Amino acid sequence: MYNDAKIRFQAAIKKYNETYGKRPLQYKKSVQKKMKAGYVPSLRDVKGLPKFHSKKQGGFSYTTNQTNGNIRIESRDGATFLRIPKFPEGIPVRLHRKLPADGLVKKVTLKREGTRYLASISVDYPFEKAPLKETVLAANMTALDYSQSGLYVDSDGKKAGYPRFHELIGKRQRRLNKSLARKKERAMKDENGQPVYSKNYRQTVVHYQKTMAKAANQRNDFLHKRSHQITNDYDAIVVEDLDLTNLAQCLKLGKKLHDNGFGMFRSMLKYKAERKGKHYIVADRFFPSSKLCSACGHKKERLRLSERTYACESCHAELDRDHNAALNLKNYGIHALLDTGFLADPVSN
Ligand SMILES: [Zn+2]
User: Fold this and answer.
1) What is the CA radius of gyration of the chain?
2) Where are the annotated coiled coils located (predicted)?
């Protein structure tokens, strides 16, 4: 593994020199700032160089793509084998789900989670899109407003009741981290001054990886179940068009936002809705869902992020900020369905 990384790194350097060698080195923006203060940049600070993955923390992950049927699932002697390049004899696997019969394997990612190995198989297959429901009652519509603390608030003002999986195990994780740091400090050094990790240390790392993987699995499970339930209960689901990476940067929420899993949740809602013939409506990016008053339509010029209650200057309605936004999204969806002729006539119903 290590040698392989070295070879790839050298190849990348060579390519970099060939492509950029004639131009002066460009440094990352964050480094340029530090350079003004007298910081001397190293190779690591050069723009466009490959990133390193931590040998210890990153675990093991390997992806291989399908070319001309070199990835296959085979059954032999009552066992199932995964055939990937370099493993002509196949790797015995336990399939958690049957693969779709007319599916095409696109790629396989092998990953280590603690002591077990997982193979995620990406399959392309034509899934049955149910025909879109032709008439939708406004009462059978819901809208979800993204909420940083709890995934979403819906247009009935209900919160998702989303357990913060990473927070739940956070305490445990901190304890493990401490224990790792202590073990690292005490580790013996080899002749090159590199620490030699004890068996105990390695076991703690495995334990750590297992804990993190468990949290991620629990979260995905929650998102699957909830999106399944919503797409069963409602005929139309309205969400806002969020650029999550952008939001993460401008709010400096970074990690927290990505832990939240809303992006994943939206894509689950979308494909589940399509399968069930339900309407999945994304509000226009410039629709001011938080600034509008859901009661009278008045638009606030300014709404600070810290204002958790929406108080309308015009009709004096007061309600939770996220609930107000979700109601606006629902109204947006009602108009969208009205325009396309899918909304059931509110008078005749
Ligand atoms: Zn109002």
Assistant:
1) 26
2) none
Q: Which of 118, 149, 105, 90 is nearest to 305 (CA)?
A: 149
Determine, yes or no, domain membership for 51.
Answer: no
**C-alpha torsion 307→313→316→318, nearest 10:** -10
- Residues measured by CB to lie within 5 Å of ligand 1, the ion: 293, 295-296, 298, 312, 314-315, 317
* pLDDT tens string 270-312: 999 999 999 999 999 889 999 999 999 999 999 888 889 999 9
> Do residue 315 and residue 274 come from a single domain?
yes
Same domain for 281 and 234: yes
Residue with tokens 């997982």: 118
Same domain? For 14 and 119 the reply is no
Q: How far is the CA of 138 from the centre of ligand 1 (A)?
A: 21
Residue length of the chain: 349
Rounded to the nearest angstrom, the distance between the alpha carbon of 104 and the centre of ligand 1 is: 53
Q: What is the DSSP letter of 27?
A: B
Element (H, E) at 236: strand 236-239
> What does the alpha-carbon distance between residue 138 and residue 136 come to, in Å, rounded to a whole number?
6
The 10s digit of each residue's pLDDT in 181-223 is 888 788 777 777 777 788 888 888 888 878 778 888 888 899 9
Is 91 part of a structural domain of the chain?
yes
Domain that holds residue 69: 61-124
